[in-house]
Design brief:
Order of helices and strands: EHEHEHEHEHE
Strand content: 15-25%
Number of domains: 1
Number of helices: 5
Distance between the termini: 44 Å
Oligomer: single chain
Shape: globular
Length: 180
Amino acid sequence: MKDIHEDRFEGMTREQQTCCLTGHRIIPPGEEQKVYTRTRYILQKLIWEKNVRNFGVGGAVGFDMMAAEYLINLKAHRAPQIRIISVLPYPAWRETDDWTDELRWRQEKILRACDKVVYVKPEYEKNVYLLRDRKLVDGSAYCVSYCNRPRTGTAYTVRYALQRGLKVFNASSFDVRSLK
């Protein structure tokens, strides 16, 4: 069966059709709706104006889950051509104390709705989160982030994306260009 959207992507590389997402685990109370609205706007522009259809998400609580749930809903109702890929550090990554049963249930629902799930390593290693972040960036042309401070894992990932030449869109008012 032919993809009715396929003509839109002719002549584009896989990288040009790919966006990674990265963000903080905690979105300050009262900021959630603003971050959600900005993220939704950015993602829709990428899909409809830049023909992005592959989205890599990292699986963390907070921004990653919010963005993944939005993409799943968008795919179900308006953009069936998009693919959502969960790029995760290792299979047991949610077995820590900070993952509640509710968060595990939400994440399981996300994973079932994704088109693909990729684990960077078979088990925990010291640098597994760094490797996951780099895997998200490598092969992408775009990065959508929620980064509001310079000394975090998210800032590292955004800095890496900028160094690799990705076009970065931030759902925070923080100027990520200062991270270079």
